[in-house]
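Q: Protein A?
A:
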Amino acid sequence: MALMITDECTACDACIEPCPNDAISFGDPIFIIDSLRCTECVGAEDEPQCELVCPADCIIPNPDFVESPDELQAKYEAIHN
């Protein structure tokens, strides 16, 4: 399942750099996660790095992009190959 950023985002930009898939970008007014690039860090890390660094605790699963770990791994491999 890809992640998404809620309206509680403070636009601090802490989440951008740790994302291994470059899935997070500036939005207006909050940051956004590209669901087609988000793998919840499967393939790169043990847990979503954006969630770990987010001081506003505003990153949640995106209910519109439910994916299995195998699907997330395949997506990661497609992005990085």
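Q: Protein B?
A:
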Amino acid sequence: MKASLARRLAVLLSSAGLVLAVLPIAPAEAQWVFIARKAAQRIHHMTEQGQNGQPGYDVASVILEAPADKVFAVALDHARNNKALRMLMVDPAGMRFQVAEGDRTATLNVIELNNEVSQLMIAGTAGRGEDPTSSRVVAAVMRVCAEMKKSCSLAR
């Protein structure tokens, strides 16, 4: 009788532990989805001016509700069709490529956040005194958004 009671108690405690271990995952994932939806299609932009004649950096990123491989394919196709750009490097497995235009370079990277959400990030050399809304990396992100039929805007 005691062995049966001990066995039932062990099963009950194991089941309770399993339920408690799984419970926090659902609210955490729901919060992540809420945050991702609030950030989706908002382009975040950052520049850093160069010093002592060195070029600065220009970075733009956006979260898109689209599969990463599709975002990468659209961006790569657009870059390959742009006659002003030279392809310097393409890494399909890493979903990354690098282009040059004159003395400027830019690297595009797509990160899969889940099957239907990805982050597009472009980092390049900045033009002196560029207005954030006329930044070349922001313009490139906007073109990818348009091709993906996503309405993106610059975050303020």
